[in-house]
Specification:
Elements (H helix, E strand, L loop, with lengths): L1 E12 L2 E13 L4 E5 L6 H9 L6 E6 L19 H12 L3 H12 L14 H14 L4 E5 L7 H17 L1 E5 L3 H7 L2 E6 L2 E5 L2 H10 L1
Length: 215
Amino acid sequence: MIELSNVSKVYHTRSGPRRVLDDVSFTIRRGQSIGIMGKNGAGKSTLTRVLSGVEFPTSGTVERNMTVSWPLGYAGAFQSSLTGADNTRYIARIYGIPIKETLEYVEDFAQLGSYFRMPIKTYSAGMHARLAFGVSLAISFDCYLVDEVVSVGDHRFAERCERALKERRERGALLMISHSVSTLQAYCETGALMNDGKLIFFDSLEETERAYHDL
């Protein structure tokens, strides 16, 4: 279970403080798959970063009683001067998982070719996302966070991502952000709308989509 209690996130900008999350409270349990919609800048990505621990809330608490991935496709933790393989080895050591098997899985999944053994600073944005996606899936998390990256790469890569995510959804929990209700319907059972820093839950993804378009 992951529980957010009265979580707010405020960024200080040149024009003054900007409240991106405003007193958000909800719980994710094993077996749940939640799709989140919202306008650009509504705070969806900030929510996933707070959930994963990449960022801390300004106020409120996040209690995690199960392991949670970083937002899939997030490459901010990679060291750009190291190769994709070196970064994969480092992360495998941090999580205490077999290095050889992890390298083999990520290399096969990400399909970066020779770039897997080249510095990450030479990667395109799509290659960053492929590597981050592969490393995320190589680790057995209880809850996966997905932020608009399942369409990264060609059709075959998208199909591979879909199969892997559905397999992991059956074993744990999933929270996915997308502007496409058809994408969310492929993975999620319930939906929520992020608007003005608030998260509003609905019984179905169809209701979520209607509320999103009403904005």
